[in-house]
Design brief:
This protein is α/β, with parallel strands linked by helices and about 220 residues long. It folds into two domains: about 35 residues, no CATH class; about 180 residues, Rossmann fold (3-Layer(aba) Sandwich), CATH 3.40.50. It is about 50% helix and about 15% strand. The chain contains ten helices and six strands; from the N terminus they run H-H-E-H-E-H-E-H-H-E-H-E-H-H-E-H. The N and C termini lie far apart (about 70 Å).
């Protein structure tokens, strides 16, 4: 019907029709982006604008533009943001979680403690499989503050399940201040930690954050 109308319409009418379709497309795109950003549960939505890249060491063959363009999502690539507290890991991870939402790709942001608590509640309510399926619909999963708080045996197994199921299906971004050799202290099990590391490094890249804490450097307590 639309094609028939367009075929018989005047140039002015076709221009008007094009304008309506363009506005409708833009409106739906904006609404989808808003829904995805809300579903991502990012505590504070960040962007790359003004971000200080001077104290970040990216791996060879993977530059800043590739990271911002989300090239690592292809093939389920993972990123580990490693560095001291306050060096910008969470800011960049938040910006990365928001970026796919802006182009129609679902993503989700968790702190490690928040993810474990979320999964524990789901397990207690006998809906763990359903929650894992919901998480699995995201192309990107950010797990922030990995290793900041201890995790008990059940929590470690739940976290392992999420990471293991993501392997080669979706991308992970983990922020941590622990080198790989200390990941066993997080899981309380060196074998489980080794299995996690094995999966992440296969298609993963390590991004090293250096320098001093931004918050300390800009603190009012001098």
């Amino acid at each position: 019907m639309v094609a028939e109308f367009a075929g018989s319409a005047t140039p002015q009418q076709r221009q008007h029709l094009h304008g309506l379709f363009t506005a409708e497309y833009a409106s739906r795109k904006a609404a989808r982006m808003s829904r995805l950003l809300k579903a991502a549960r990012i505590p504070t939505v960040k962007t790359f604008d003004g971000y200080d890249w001077s104290q970040i060491r990216l791996p060879d063959g993977f530059d800043r533009q590739a990271l911002m363009d989300l090239d690592f999502l292809d093939g389920g690539g993972d990123l580990v943001f490693y560095g001291d507290v306050g060096t910008g890991k969470t800011h960049l991870a938040s910006a990365l979680a928001a970026q796919p939402c802006r182009v129609g790709i679902p993503a989700r942001f968790f702190t490690t403690a928040g993810l474990v608590a979320h999964l524990r509640r789901a397990k207690d309510a006998n809906r763990l499989d359903k929650e894992l399926a919901v998480i699995g619909k995201n192309r990107l999963l950010v797990i922030d503050e990995f290793g900041y708080l201890p995790i008990d045996t059940q929590g470690s197994r739940l976290l392992f399940q999420v990471i293991a199921e993501a392997y080669e299906k979706r991308s992970l971004v983990l922020t941590t201040n622990l080198e790989f050799a200390r990941w066993g202290t997080v899981f309380g099990d060196d074998t489980m930690a080794a299995a996690v590391i094995d999966r992440i490094v296969h298609h993963g890249r390590l991004v090293h954050f250096t320098g001093t804490s931004y918050r300390v450097a800009h603190s009012l307590m001098k």
